[in-house]
């Protein structure tokens, strides 16, 4: 069961080369020259930035650019190869592993989460009694205790617990239920609640909205805006970034000098440094596009100048050949002209060579070739295979898939829908309403407890589920793709077909991929032989912002039916097809 969760510690503990800022009273998160290199790739190089108390900085970048690695370094779960980190007080990270044993009940998890804050309230009481007993040092300690308790919301903690639990969509869970009995999404939301209630001074969040519906995301944004310490978030949620982020930190490659990266041209990592942007994500998109265009022009102009200087150096070596002199001149004149010619040639060559050497040292790096989604192939042509046999898909203008009152006890209320050959349907609804369950029923991987499915006998259905299929982590990406789609199809439709997986990653082990890179591999597997009905469960989770934008545009031209289950508000705002909103079993589903 893959899910997001949290880790918390205090950087006042010795975690060399991480340094604690708590002792100095600093209230900013400071990252200075952090680099991280793995045996097969460079991920982070000379990354430096500051996140002030009360600031919400969002780290963005392509899949594999090092966002999660950076957060793990800041949390003390990984060590940089160079550089240092300073963070105020305790540091909490929401990431991949639960911070509590799964055999704990919901009530025990919440008690564990709130224990440090309750201890702050108890400290206030203790120091107050000490002051009343005449302890001369108690006054200063009491002031510090009151400040800590106020900053961490100790006085309204019980109300805060109820608000967070209800707002994150886990209020309906009975408190005696064990975490091991919860779904992956419920564990993730309980883990986020654990971290928010624990109230660390420095808050680090890795894809916090992946399992949150609109109401839960709204609560999270509200809590982050009132966080007293620095907040650093890695996210691909465009609407969330637009609403919450006060600063964007872009880990994608920047136009640094070629000499600085000449030894590392094939790295799948972030490039060098980080680019800070103070506007919204919407503003960032336009700014980044302009920056890339300027970079490309700069690189092109420099290459033209380099070629001109190299040609000049070659030509200047032969200008004014000293063996040629005026036909009528005397021997003395010949020597004079020869010496003068040599000096002129030497000066020209030196001037051109110096300019060439300087430009070669300072020239900007080549703009990296970014993965671009190349769109879809028609499942009805060539059998969905390059060079394959013709395959006849569903014919006619009627429905190809109909669900009549399908229901799964406790997971999906009776739901009906009808899909045509080119239908576009967006399924929305709060957490627990059954979006993933409905897609699993439509894909025929889960049998409904009630209702019926009617489908064309030739219909082929493909599902991109939220949870990745189990794959041997030691397999190469190329081998895993071939194993999933079959050797013959993998040969006809190479892994590179859709522009989802970089060639440099094809021979890396699957276990070394980031979550986003693994998501790209799973999508490539589904699209290798395009299905007549494409089912996508939260397709924007983990994928890079630019890829998501390209994927959404391409879906308009998908040559089959598309059903998307998503809580992505950005996607929903731009959706032009049909909508189906699911409610809980009491409310039932409804077409919007």
UniProtKB/TrEMBL annotation:
Please note every region of biased composition (Basic and acidic residues): 326-336
Task: Name the InterPro entries on file.
Answer: AAA+_ATPase, ABC_transporter-like_ATP-bd, ABC_transporter-like_CS, ABCF_ATPase, P-loop_NTPase
Q: Which domain of life is it from?
A: Bacteria
Q: Where is this region: Disordered?
A: 313-336, 374-399
Q: Which UniProt keywords apply?
A: ATP-binding, Nucleotide-binding
Pfam families cross-referenced by the UniProt entry? ABC_tran
* Extent of Low complexity compositional bias: 388-399
Every copy of the ABC transporter domain together lies at 29-278, 395-592
Q: Name one GO molecular function term.
A: ATP binding
Q: Give the transmembrane region(s).
A: none
What is the recorded name of this protein? ATP-binding cassette domain-containing protein
The organism named in the record is Arsenicicoccus bolidensis
């Amino acid at each position: 069961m893959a899910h997001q969760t949290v880790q918390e510690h205090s950087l006042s503990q010795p975690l060399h080369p991480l340094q604690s800022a708590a002792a100095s009273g600093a209230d900013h998160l400071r990252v200075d020259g952090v680099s991280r290199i793995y045996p097969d790739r460079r991920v982070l190089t000379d990354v430096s930035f500051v996140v002030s108390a009360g600031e919400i900085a969002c780290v963005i970048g392509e899949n594999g650019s090092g966002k999660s690695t950076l957060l793990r370094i800041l949390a003390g779960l990984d060590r940089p190869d160079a550089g240092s980190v300073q963070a105020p007080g305790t540091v909490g990270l929401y990431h991949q592993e639960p911070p509590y044993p799964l055999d704990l009940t919901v009530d025990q998890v919440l008690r564990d989460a709130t224990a440090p804050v309750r201890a702050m309230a108890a400290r206030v009481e203790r120091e107050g009694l000490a002051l009343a007993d005449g302890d001369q040092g108690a006054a200063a300690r009491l002031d510090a205790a009151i400040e800590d308790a106020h900053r961490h919301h100790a006085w309204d903690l019980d109300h805060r617990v109820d608000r967070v639990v209800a707002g994150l969509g886990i209020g309906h869970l009975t408190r005696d239920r064990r975490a091991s009995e919860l779904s992956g999404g419920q564990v993730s939301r309980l883990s986020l609640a654990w971290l928010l209630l624990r109230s660390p001074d420095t808050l680090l969040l890795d894809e916090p909205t992946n399992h949150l519906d609109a109401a839960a995301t709204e609560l999270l944004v509200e809590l982050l805006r009132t966080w007293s310490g620095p907040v650093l978030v890695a996210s691909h949620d465009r609407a969330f970034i637009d609403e919450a982020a006060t600063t964007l930190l872009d880990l994608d490659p920047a136009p640094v000098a070629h000499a600085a990266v000449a030894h590392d041209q094939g790295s799948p990592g972030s490039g060098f440094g980080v680019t800070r942007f103070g506007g919204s994500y919407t503003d960032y998109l336009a700014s980044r596009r302009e920056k890339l265009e300027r970079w490309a022009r700069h690189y092109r102009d420099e290459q033209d100048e380099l070629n001109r200087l190299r040609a000049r150096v070659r030509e200047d070596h032969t200008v004014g050949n000293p063996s040629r002199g005026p036909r009528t001149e005397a021997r003395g004149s010949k020597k004079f002209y020869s010496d003068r010619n040599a000096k002129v040639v030497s000066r020209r060559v030196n001037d051109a060579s110096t300019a060439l050497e300087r430009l070669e040292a300072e020239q900007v790096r080549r703009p990296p070739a970014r993965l671009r989604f190349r769109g879809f192939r028609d499942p009805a042509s060539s059998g969905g295979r390059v060079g394959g046999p013709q395959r006849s898909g569903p014919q006619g203008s009627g429905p190809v898939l109909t669900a009549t009152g399908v229901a799964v006890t406790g997971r999906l209320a009776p739901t009906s829908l009808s899909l045509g050959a080119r239908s576009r349907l967006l399924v929305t609804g709060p957490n627990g309403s059954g979006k993933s369950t409905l897609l699993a029923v439509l894909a025929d991987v889960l049998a409904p407890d009630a209702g019926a499915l009617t489908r064309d006998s030739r219909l082929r259905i493909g599902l991109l589920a939220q949870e990745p299929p189990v794959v041997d982590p030691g397999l190469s990406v190329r081998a895993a793709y071939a194993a999933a789609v079959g050797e013959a199809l993998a040969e006809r439709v190479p892994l590179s077909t859709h522009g989802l997986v970089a060639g440099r990653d094809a021979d890396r082990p699957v276990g070394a991929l980031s979550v986003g890179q693994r998501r790209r591999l799973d999508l490539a597997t589904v699209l290798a032989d395009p299905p007549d009905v494409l089912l996508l469960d939260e397709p924007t989770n983990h994928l890079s912002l630019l890829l998501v934008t390209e994927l959404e545009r391409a879906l308009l031209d998908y040559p089959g039916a598309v059903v998307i289950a998503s809580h992505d508000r950005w996607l929903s705002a731009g959706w032009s097809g049909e909508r189906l909103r699911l409610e809980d079993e009491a409310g039932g589903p409804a077409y919007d």
